[in-house]
From TrEMBL:
Residues 107-152 form the DNA methylase N-4/N-6 domain. GO terms for molecular function: DNA binding; N-methyltransferase activity. This is DNA methylase N-4/N-6 domain-containing protein. Keywords: Methyltransferase, Transferase.
Length: 154
């Protein structure tokens, strides 16, 4: 049985080509050709996501109860009118950036050896994927808890 975490479709983590059954020009280069309808619920997407998770992405770690690491919405200085907060003022709403979507965007729009800029780094799925795909990475995060978690992980 092949190690799914070691071999992601398109190229493995060392940049070596892994041939898919129907690998044509664009599919071979981009995994899913640009201008394609993306369906994250289907088997190939989910299989690839499981492979990324097996490599060590920890998107839910550090979010605390309610899915949030901070408290009241820091960008608005309190509870916003369109989000319901719990009694303690915590506004839930963070989510893990899908590593497959992240990978596709990098392959489509960032050449190998290019640089990724993430102005909302969060728990740094983007950093992890960029490193595995051999892209430079600049992440900006205002929340010191997320910044600390990223430094500890990567």
């Amino acid at each position: 049985m092949r190690n799914k975490a070691k071999h992601l479709l398109g190229t493995n983590l060392f940049g070596e080509a892994v041939q898919a059954k129907d690998a044509g020009g664009l599919a071979q280069k981009f995994i899913v050709p640009p201008f394609t309808i993306l369906d994250a619920r289907q088997g190939p997407w989910q299989e690839r996501k499981r492979a990324w998770v097996a490599l060590g992405i920890e998107g839910s770690k550090g979010r605390g109860e309610g899915g949030n690491v901070y408290g009241p919405d820091p960008m608005r200085g309190g509870v916003s009118w369109f989000q319901e907060a719990k009694e303690d003022g915590v506004v839930a709403g963070t989510s893990m950036f899908d590593p497959v979507l992240c990978e596709l965007v990098y392959r489509w729009f960032c050449p190998p050896g290019g640089r990724v800029l993430d102005p909302f780094a969060g728990e740094s799925t983007t950093l992890y994927v960029a490193a595995k795909l051999r892209r430079d990475y600049i992440g900006i995060e205002l929340n010191p808890d997320y910044a600390r978690l990223s430094k500890e992980r990567y």
